[in-house]
TrEMBL record:
Its cofactor is dipyrromethane. Belongs to the HMBS family. Residues 228-305 form the Porphobilinogen deaminase C-terminal domain. Residues 278-299 are annotated as: Disordered. This is Porphobilinogen deaminase. Monomer. The gene is hemC. It comes from Tautonia plasticadhaerens. Pathway: Porphyrin-containing compound metabolism; protoporphyrin-IX biosynthesis; coproporphyrinogen-III from 5-aminolevulinate: step 2/4.
Amino acid sequence: MGRAAVRIGTRGSALARWQSGWVADRLRAAHPGLSVELVEIRTRGDRDRNSPLSQISGGTGLFTKEIQRALLDREVEVAVHSLKDLPTLSPDGLTLGAIPEREDPADALVAPRHRTLEGLPPGATVGTGSLRRRAMLRHARPDLEVVDIRGNVETRLAKATSGELDAVVLAASGLHRLGLLDRATQRLGPPGFLPAVGQGALGIECRRDDPGTIALLAPLDHPPTRRAVLAERACLAALEGGCMVPLAAWGRDLDEGDGEGDRGGLLALEVAVFDPDGRERLDGSRTGPRSDPRSLGLRVADDLRAAGADRLLGLARPGGGP
């Protein structure tokens, strides 16, 4: 391959290091003799652990910009991101060299006493740092008190297990990767509870002008996952949503095994847009050829915009109140 060593830029959290370690192991397995080093990089989102994510100025790319800068500055050859954190507009010169197979995209409720969303009593406190989760929770249960929480997975779990909060909502994929999925008391998944764009998937970036690294990453790519998340990200980009708006999306291949007849060759995309308090919800869904996921995302975005999505998403942006 012409390269004996690769440096991977990663955040320092336990989950981020697990994800980057997983990528490192797959690279070593695909290319015996390759030396892989993890390089820890602190992002702005890591440095400010107290402010709600939506209130940190310049919120787009809070967990990715510094890692992308290290990649452009040739301090690392590869960057591993949780794809849901990666802005849809990448810096010039970077590309998604691989998108591995997606983990379960669902959310997970951790409610040690009450177990399920339906079982939570009126006024129960539920913690999340996500505007999407807040809106979806409030849409399903307007009587809940949804509070903002920050911190790593273990810190957020502790708020529920200690009784400080009645429940927290986290990504099922993160719990699974850290061996903590047994803490979840209910899976909140599609079609009723749609995930964040790209949730459960990893985005592995490299430089466009680095064909050696692009070739190294190729065996890690999973085409069905790439199609699904490209459709989701195209819709988000078209709506100018950014990563921190109350928008949820679920893309997937439709096969005969889905119980929907012979739908081979088709990609499905379902998207939901909310106002920040979850009072209003708009849904859009379409199917299209797998060969053109971007066009599918754009068509769903057009449908949602015609239904009023711009107004709802505008409410979630700074200064976008009524």
